[in-house]
């Protein structure tokens, strides 16, 4: 077996309009209306494209969380963000290389609608679309879609599995060479180049065919962030670009190896799955400056919001009645993200943290790297060379400063080390990532 | 009747033209070419046209491969992604997306339109449709369409819910006060908690109130139910009357329906469809029409009528025989009725009928097309027109370079972009402030 490790690492930017940190919108340099200011987004994404980032990624939630109003009134992104597919389509018109990864839920969408929208984005961008497949998180989302509560964990992963199968089938509705556009004969496409799907399953009945030619990439790149058992299983079977929240190298490596192993067991090549741990970066020419920048960003986080964030990840619990200097109380598991809840309890127990200590810990998430360009590059290089990362999902706590600093300081350092491309070589997201273009299910073998 | 406003022109947008054979004589294979889509939108914007309008069907648009494989109706951009891309490449032209109330979720549509409105700086419009093409139902788990009544009952609730979601957030709901750390003024937002027979959604919307307050609502209801629906909700009404008499009757009926809905005729704009086939002489225009129609394959001719009427199979039917009696169906009733009466009144053959349906309209010189526009405008049946250029780029060039200057000379039209689509159309912006919400919901 040849070494599977790619020679270069990949960079994906998590773009959050108001900055990745919950207090980021309060930064003096942040535009007040960042959430809906498309001109600002376009300027940031052009910077990322100038730096030859593989992709920009937009996370999403289909509701304002019904958390404590005292918390919600102090945050930006969940209140006031552009919808991912419309935003990415707008970005596609003013960029030409950078990949465009949008989050969309299999729980509150129909496969025909989503398969079509992503195919359309792939055509508009000439092969740069990616889909971060999520199953949604919170009951508030369910209530926006006519359900009283969120679909049970197992059900929503079975639905996701079926959803993806339908999407793949719909993307193969037309053969790659179906359209001949022969003006002389009047033939637009070959009659034997179009295929109905006629899917009938547990959650969906979809006849097809899709009303758009096969996407330039065959399929948009599938991103996934499976953390629970069901989520990992889905990621192992379908994910090509895997986001992970691991904050320690050994955890990230274990996760990466497990996912590669799962992919192998699903009959996929280890080259077809790329691990992208998340990292939040605050970089400056000197360590002191970086620490100072970081301190100024963390000072923007209102203490009530920090506590609220913990409440949110524990499944929207209420911590206000508890002693902040006492232990983190254990609540019964909710139907929300299981893995996040488990991770928090594990950490709190392992390190015997009080609520206050835990909240302070949140201020400096373990996957935050604060330092000089060399220090940040060291961190990325260590994870990359250890096999824990094929690339990184980079978040920028406050915009535009931390993004500019990363592009101006870290990217050149990675290039000096031969770790990151000098310029794009291909035009599609699959080409940037070195992922194969999937053949159609109808292609003659 | 004197006009107080210049006419508005929407363009039915498709990069290879609207005539079923238009793709064979220009922009061949351009249907999914983003560069050509942007070029056309910029051309229409430079000319001062009011909006681009993206029609839509949530399936391939034709049941029979013999015909479908000879048209552009099997593969086209999805409206919201296309219009968002065009939004980033233009500055002033309106962007109208078709979205069905039958197979979507209200929260998704409210949010996409709000997002498009923000991305475009207030240029979004929503063409509200109910789905009637049989293939659509089968893509969404249904054996057949919702019946006419249920379809409109759902549409009614859906539009209420979408508007309701836009109105969950006040214009000034977000003080975004960096100093105090208060992003949201809690009094400026409320849940919707819409629970109905067809649509349930809690809200609030997770984005600022759209720049236009509410994106502009377009509607094309032509049946009695559809017209009542349009009168309640539509701000711009598409219509497809086949002559001035029918247009007058339509406008009178719409005015009655508006009155019944408590609205005034001035609250809406009516845009009849106009598919101009333009030549520098009458003979040249007729040659162009004949050329386009001559490019229609017999199978396309048969199916274009069949697909519009439904529940009948014209396979092997003689194109040059008169149209047979047709059964009533669950399709768009007004359209089928119009086809039938047209064929009966004029004793048309299938071929003659199909050709009329294939995308040609007013044929002639720029002056003659301008005459048509002027006649309809003066008769009070058109505040604007929805243009369907038979083929591109020539159809657009002929209109922009020939007809628009003529209309400007006649004082019927001039470029008149406002800051938003609402302003261009002269429609009032629905405002909603924190103070309004405090007053109504203390």
How does this model look, in words?
Chain A is globular and about 75 Å long. Chain A has an eight-stranded parallel barrel, surrounded by eight helices. In chain A, strands 5-6 form a two-stranded antiparallel sheet. In chain A, strands 7-8 form a two-stranded antiparallel ribbon. Chain A has helices at 38-50, 69-72, 84-94, 111-124, 139-144, 153-171, 229-238, 249-265, 287-298, 303-313, 338-351, 355-363, 373-386, 401-416, 429-433; strands at 10-14, 55-58, 99-105, 129-134, 179-182, 187-189, 199-200, 205-206, 221-224, 241-244, 274-283, 368-371, 391-395. The relative contact order of chain A is 0.16. In chain A, helix 4 links the parallel strand 3 (99-105) and strand 4 (129-134). In chain A, helix 7 (229-238) packs across helix 8 and helix 13 crosses helix 14. Chain A contains 15 helices and 13 strands. Chain B has 442 residues and is an alpha/beta fold. Chain B contains 16 helices and twelve strands. Chain B has helices spanning 34-47, 65-68, 79-89, 106-119, 134-138, 148-166, 224-233, 244-260, 282-294, 298-309, 333-346, 350-357, 366-378, 394-409, 421-425, 434-440; strands at 8-12, 51-54, 94-100, 124-129, 194-195, 200-201, 216-219, 236-239, 269-274, 277-278, 363-364, 384-387. In chain B, strands 1-2-3-4-7-8-9-12 form an eight-stranded parallel beta barrel, surrounded by five helices. In chain B, helix 8 links the parallel strand 8 and strand 9. In chain B, helix 4 (106-119) packs across helix 6, helix 7 crosses helix 8 and helix 10 crosses helix 12. The mean pLDDT of chain B is 92. The interface between A and B is large, with 79 and 72 residues.
Secondary structure blueprint with pairings:
The complex is a heterodimer of chains A (445) and B (442).
Chain A: E1 10-14, H1 38-50, E2 55-58, H2 69-72, H3 84-94, E3 99-105, H4 111-124, E4 129-134, H5 139-144, H6 153-171, E5 179-182, E6 187-189, E7 199-200, E8 205-206, E9 221-224, H7 229-238, E10 241-244, H8 249-265, E11 274-283, H9 287-298, H10 303-313, H11 338-351, H12 355-363, E12 368-371, H13 373-386, E13 391-395, H14 401-416, H15 429-433
Chain B: E1 8-12, H1 34-47, E2 51-54, H2 65-68, H3 79-89, E3 94-100, H4 106-119, E4 124-129, H5 134-138, H6 148-166, E5 194-195, E6 200-201, E7 216-219, H7 224-233, E8 236-239, H8 244-260, E9 269-274, E10 277-278, H9 282-294, H10 298-309, H11 333-346, H12 350-357, E11 363-364, H13 366-378, E12 384-387, H14 394-409, H15 421-425, H16 434-440
Parallel strand pairs in B: 1-2, 1-12, 2-3, 3-4, 4-7, 7-8, 8-9, 9-12, 10-11
Antiparallel strand pairs in B: 5-6
Helix pairs in contact in B: 1-3, 3-4, 4-6, 6-7, 7-8, 10-12, 13-14
């Amino acid at each position: 077996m040849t070494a599977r490790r790619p020679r270069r690492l990949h960079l994906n930017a998590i773009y959050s309009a108001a900055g990745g940190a919950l207090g980021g919108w309060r930064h003096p340099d942040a535009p007040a209306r960042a959430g809906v200011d498309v001109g600002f987004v376009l300027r940031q994404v052009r910077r990322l494209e100038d730096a030859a980032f593989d992709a920009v990624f937009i996370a999403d939630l289909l509701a304002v969380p019904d958390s404590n109003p005292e918390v919600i009134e102090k945050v930006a992104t969940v209140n006031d963000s552009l919808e991912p597919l419309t935003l990415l389509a707008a970005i596609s018109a003013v960029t030409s290389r950078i990949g465009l990864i949008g989050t969309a839920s299999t729980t509150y969408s129909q496969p025909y609608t989503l398969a079509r929208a992503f195919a359309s984005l792939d055509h508009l961008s000439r092969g740069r679309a990616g889909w971060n497949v999520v199953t949604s998180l919170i009951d508030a989302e369910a209530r926006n879609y006519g359900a009283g509560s969120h679909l049970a964990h197992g059900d929503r992963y079975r639905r996701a599995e079926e959803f993806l199968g339908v999407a793949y089938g719909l993307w193969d509705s037309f053969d790659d060479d179906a359209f001949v556009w022969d003006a002389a004969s009047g033939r637009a496409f070959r009659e034997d180049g179009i295929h109905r799907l006629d899917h009938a399953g547990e959650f969906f009945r979809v006849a097809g065919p899709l009303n758009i030619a096969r996407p330039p990439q065959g399929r948009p790149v599938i991103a996934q962030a499976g953390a629970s058992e069901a989520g990992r299983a889905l990621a192992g079977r379908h994910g090509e670009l895997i986001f992970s929240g691991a904050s320690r190298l050994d955890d990230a490596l274990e996760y990466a190896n497990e996912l590669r192993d799962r992919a192998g067991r699903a009959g996929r090549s280890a080259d077809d799955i790329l691990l992208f741990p998340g990292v939040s970066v605050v970089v400056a020419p000197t360590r002191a400056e970086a620490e100072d920048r970081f301190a100024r960003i963390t000072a923007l986080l209102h203490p009530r919001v920090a506590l609220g964030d913990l409440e949110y990840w524990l499944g929207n619990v209420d911590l206000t009645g508890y002693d902040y200097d006492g232990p983190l109380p254990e609540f019964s598991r909710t139907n929300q993200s299981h893995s996040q809840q488990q991770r928090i309890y594990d950490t709190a127990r392992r390190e015997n943290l009080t609520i206050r200590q835990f909240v302070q810990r949140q201020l400096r998430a373990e996957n935050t790297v604060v330092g000089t360009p060399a220090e940040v590059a060291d961190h990325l290089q260590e994870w990359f060379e250890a096999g824990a990362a094929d690339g990184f999902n980079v978040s920028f706590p406050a915009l535009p400063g931390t993004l500019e600093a990363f592009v101006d300081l870290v990217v050149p350092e990675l290039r000096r080390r031969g770790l990151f491309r000098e310029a794009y070589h291909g035009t599609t997201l699959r080409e940037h990532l070195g992922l194969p273009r999937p053949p159609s299910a109808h292609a003659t073998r | 009747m004197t006009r107080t406003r210049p006419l508005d022109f929407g363009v039915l947008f498709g990069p290879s033209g609207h005539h079923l054979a238009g793709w064979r004589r220009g922009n061949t294979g351009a249907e999914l070419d983003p560069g050509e889509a942007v070029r056309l939108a910029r051309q229409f914007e430079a000319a001062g046209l009011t909006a681009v309008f993206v029609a839509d069907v949530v399936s391939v648009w034709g049941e029979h491969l013999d015909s479908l494989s000879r048209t552009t109706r099997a593969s086209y951009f999805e409206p919201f992604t296309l219009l968002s891309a065009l939004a980033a490449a233009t500055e002033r032209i309106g962007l109208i997306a078709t979205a069905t109330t039958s197979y979507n979720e209200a929260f998704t549509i409210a949010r996409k339109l709000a997002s498009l409105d923000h991305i475009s700086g207030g240029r979004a419009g929503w063409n509200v449709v109910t789905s009637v093409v049989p293939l659509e139902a089968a893509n969404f788990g249904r054996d057949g369409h919702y019946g006419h009544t249920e379809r409109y009952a759902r549409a009614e609730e859906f539009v209420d819910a979408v508007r309701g979601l836009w109105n969950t957030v006040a214009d000034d709901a977000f003080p975004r006060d960096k100093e105090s750390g208060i992003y949201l003024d809690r009094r400026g937002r409320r849940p919707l908690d819409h629970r109905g027979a067809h649509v349930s959604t809690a809200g609030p919307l997770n984005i600022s109130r759209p720049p236009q307050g509410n994106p502009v609502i377009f509607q094309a209801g032509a049946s009695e139910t559809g017209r009542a629906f349009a009168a309640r909700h539509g701000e711009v009404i598409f219509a497809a009357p086949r002559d001035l008499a029918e247009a007058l009757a339509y406008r009178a009926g719409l005015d009655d329906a508006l009155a019944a809905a408590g609205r005034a005729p001035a609250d809406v704009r009516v845009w009849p469809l106009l598919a101009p086939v333009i030549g520098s002489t009458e003979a040249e225009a007729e040659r162009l029409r004949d050329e386009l129609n001559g490019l229609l394959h017999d199978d396309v001719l048969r199916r274009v009528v069949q697909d519009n009427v439904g529940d009948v199979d014209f396979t092997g039917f003689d194109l040059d025989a008169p149209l047979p009696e047709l059964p009533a169906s669950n399709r768009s009733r007004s359209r089928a009725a119009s086809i039938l009466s047209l064929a009966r009144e004029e004793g048309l053959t299938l071929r003659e009928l199909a050709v009329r349906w294939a995308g040609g309209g007013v044929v002639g010189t720029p002056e003659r097309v301008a005459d048509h526009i002027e006649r309809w405008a003066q008769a009070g049946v058109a505040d604007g027109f929805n243009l369907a250029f038979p083929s591109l780029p020539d159809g657009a060039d002929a209109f922009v370079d020939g007809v628009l200057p003529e209309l400007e000379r006649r004082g019927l039209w001039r470029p008149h972009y406002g800051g938003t689509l609402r302003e261009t159309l002269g429609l009032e912006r629905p405002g909603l402030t924190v103070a309004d919400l405090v007053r109504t919901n203390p």
